[in-house]
Amino acid sequence: MSGPDLRYQRILLKLSGEALMGNKEFGLDLPVVQEVANQIKLAKALGVEIGVVVGGGNIFRGLAASEAGMDRVQGDYMGMLATVMNAMALQDALEKQDVPTRVQTAIPMASVAEPYIRRRATRHMEKGRVVIFAAGTGNPYVTTDTAGALRAVEIEAQVLLLAKNKVDGVYDADPRKVPTAKKFEHLTYIEALNRGLEVMDPTAITLCMDNHLPIIVFALPGEDNLRRIVRGEEGRGTVIADG
């Protein structure tokens, strides 16, 4: 049953690979993965239905490999496999906290995960399971940002939550380098695109705009931010939506 104080009954949480990396330069920081799982557990306890899309940049980046000379398509497929590794790690952390979880992949790999089937995914969520969507869309040249927007639209999520590791929203400059950087509380989709803020892949923002799906960019670590956002508390990150 959904709680009466929820603003969002069904969400899509987009996690970058870097969000699972912590302060490491590569790979997974397991205490960070466990903290992410705990935040998801706390939000789920309110009755919200949760889908998650994970990136793989902490393990392998297809675009970077392409720039170094690898075939772009081959590199992108390797990046998709990296997202599956992250999904399995997050699934393990969630299930260790007694949160029933399913991993669905856009590239069939029946030995480790279910294939992505939209109706099955929504049924899992209705039954209280967290569903982690891995392997992007299964297509090269498509970012996991776009995969997150697509899955959010497909499962009829009410909001796309874009979790950041080290910043708490969208700024007009990198706040880690520019102390006077200004944080935006609200942006329209067009503003986010025209300002070139690099919030998400432009294709992902456009997909959200076309389907009137709001985006909230927020800092995942600490302060129980995920649960606060699904309850509708103001001032948690930057909202990108219709004007």
How would you describe the overall organization of this protein?
The protein is an alpha/beta fold. The protein has one domain: 3-Layer(aba) Sandwich (Carbamate kinase), CATH 3.40.1160.10. The protein has eight helices and eleven strands. The protein has helices at 30-44, 62-67, 72-96, 118-126, 144-154, 189-194, 202-210, 225-230, and strands at residues 10-15, 49-54, 101-105, 114-115, 130-134, 159-164, 170-171, 183-184, 186-188, 215-219, 238-241. It has a nine-stranded mixed sheet, with helices on both faces. Strands 7-8 form a two-stranded antiparallel ribbon. The radius of gyration is 17 Å and the shape is globular. The model has no long low-confidence stretch (mean pLDDT 91).
